[in-house]
């Protein structure tokens, strides 16, 4: 499609910027979008527009939400004594899909990574400490990824929270060290949650 200019070339270029999409795949996707019905192609454009314009972070837990407060934080049937701390909204999604945990979450929006210049101030740690201070949590479950940085982040936070009368636990190592929560399967996550240990 290298001799194409204008709209088609622009679409190929944009699609090619997506992770895991090479030039060939971008061209295939572009041709696909030209072949399907107009409404089907525009539904994709509309979904992208909506996700960027309507989705934001929950003011309480920093999960993705279309309202100021996310559906999980608004759900009065959740156990408000347990708080599970994760790195990213997609980790929350993985844990939620396992169906084992019924408490609340806190999304850090990253992990402490000194080599990348990411310090604690760039995460939502201050808001987390505030929640623990003002909430009625009895257990904080550290569910950062089992990587060097995830472990470091977890340790950093548990030190900060040590002044509060809460039990701090860590997911059991059902998940192989170095693997990422996002890719762990449902059973592994359920095992890691039920076998969590005191930190
Ligand atoms: Zn929330």
TrEMBL record:
A family per Pfam: RecR_ZnF
Q: Where is the Toprim domain?
A: 81-176
- What InterPro entries does the database record attribute to this sequence? DNA_Rcmb_RecR (IPR000093), Rcmb_RecR (IPR023627), Rcmb_RecR_Znf (IPR015967), TOPRIM_dom (IPR006171), TOPRIM_RecR (IPR034137)
Example of a GO biological process term: DNA repair
Q: What PANTHER family does the entry give?
A: RECOMBINATION PROTEIN RECR (PTHR30446:SF0)
- What is the annotated role of this protein in its UniProt record? May play a role in DNA repair. It seems to be involved in an RecBC-independent recombinational process of DNA repair. It may act with RecF and RecO.
Q: Which NCBIfam families match?
A: recR
Name of this chain's protein: Recombination protein RecR
